[in-house]
Amino acid sequence: MESRRYGIGAETTTNGATRLRVWAPRRSRVEVILEAPGKDARTVELQSAAAAGYFTGVVERAPAGTLYRFRLDNDVNLYPDPASRFQPEGPHGPSQVIDPHSFKWTDQNWRGVSADGQVIYEMHIGTFTPEGTWAAAERELPALAELGITLLEIMPVADFPGKFGWGYDGVNLFAPTRLYGNPDSFRHFVDRAHALDMGVILDVVYNHIGPDGNYLKQFSNDYVTDRYANDWGDAINFDGPRSVPVREFFLANAAYWIEEFHLDGLRLDATQQIFDQSKSHILAEISHRARMAAPHRQIYIVAENEPQHTRLVRPMDKGGFGIDALWNDDFHHAAVVALTGHNEAYYQDYLGKPQEFISAAKWGCLYQGQRYSWQKQQRGTPGLDLGPTHFVTFLENHDQVANSGHGRRLRLMSSPGRFRALTALLLLGPNTPLLFQGQEFGSTAPFLFFADHNRDLAKLVREGRIKFLGQFPSLAASDLMNLIADPAATETFERCKLNRSDANAEIVALHRDLLKLRCDDLAFRLPMHRRLDGAVLDADAFVVRFFAAAEDDRLLLVNLGRDVKLREAPEPLLAPPLGKTWSLRWSSENWAYGGSGHAAREDAAEGWIIPGESATVLFPTNAS
User: Domains in the chain, ordered, with CATH?
Assistant: First the structure.
């Protein structure tokens, strides 16, 4: 008999049968009900392995496409498979048998992605195009590849109820949502990305399961635990009684996406809400299992972790979890303060000043154990020894755009010059940069929180959203709260769809040229750890020097304030290599980007002149 690939779910055989295995320890009898159009339903009882709580069976005449549900004991209700591979009618409908081997891949020579040299692009398939499908998104991939994107990060696709949503309340963790197409549509998208030399990673949610359409407790109460407080409902039981099958459920899921969809890695959502006191932490095991699922490809794993625990990105043999990178909220928060002038709520511990950007470039996270007044406690752990690729930086992502209250894009809340300057710092800086969909062409479409839940749950979600945004004094006024978009409204979802007809040619040129410079210049693409330094030049101006081989250094001068003139410059980082002088390589004030045409320079008579709200790249040339 053919061996199973995974310990749970429905798997096809070569003779048209399907093997089923489900964990249901709270049940004494499990039957599978097979449905076919125009035919009576068939019932097959699964065999119990009582000690482990699993029920298994081989169902004849159940090829790919077969619809099925489970009857548990004598319950009149029928339930989808907890490890369903597809829910064509949504989470409340029947599961469908899927044959992953029927898809013909063309990426046999693809070798995955490393942690070095990546430019990440976060996208939500439902709003990335007007159609909101895998096929429509696939048509836009050549433009992203040409721009210089190397890695696509897809927001969660595990199926969820309703007609739209962010995906973070998924309930069928093995079933890509029917809203964007069928599983092979997802595979085709990945295959096409690989053909264009772009990797694809998937945002997965292993810290909770959504409330609507979640039938896991019908099979076992042990999937969740009340031992930990979770921000979004019940915490997952990774370390309590009968947690071994729960761990295997999530480990299998991580491997499944890598193996059956040829994904190049995972983005792990809110890992601070994944609780595990086991000797071997579930995050370390997820990292290991994901890499084992693709022995001939490099896998890239990034974690969101608000407390900034650097243990996540340390090697397993040194007590770490073996994850490649952390999202760096500190860089984002400092940038938002610099761009908008506001530092309320969770921005209050940031000034948006030069030293923050220099420290972020050199050391990654800004908080590595200091007191964090917003939380009235210490935040972060030491990471001074970690290289720049361990941190992912961004000006925008799905959460932070939506948290503006009105979903407004950051460039619309700042001056054009400052936005261009910090975009240069983002895309030329030593950490791995991330762009959020539409950022590259100056999209004016908002990105709001949207979720199509049933009426009762929708009311709670809206109230929760208003309460969350109430932490911002500027939004807390009652008249503004009344203007917060209703997450359950179709109009809210539709407003978030990208409209490429409003593309700003100057913003496109800015991103295109910066990404080309990053790609072509090794000093920016592969910065060496501890071979970078910076200095504050003025209240709002600073320099970052990238040290390269053969003294082929680069200077990045950033000024977020008024014009700066340094008649004396007692700063050694501004000194060119012996026998060289600094020459212009790139300026954010180029006319093509809507700038003034000026760039930072050293004048023999006046000293250094750094235009206000600008960024300039200089490189050494032979002195005349």
Answer: 9-101 (2.60.40.10), 120-518 (3.20.20.80), 531-622 (2.60.40.1180)
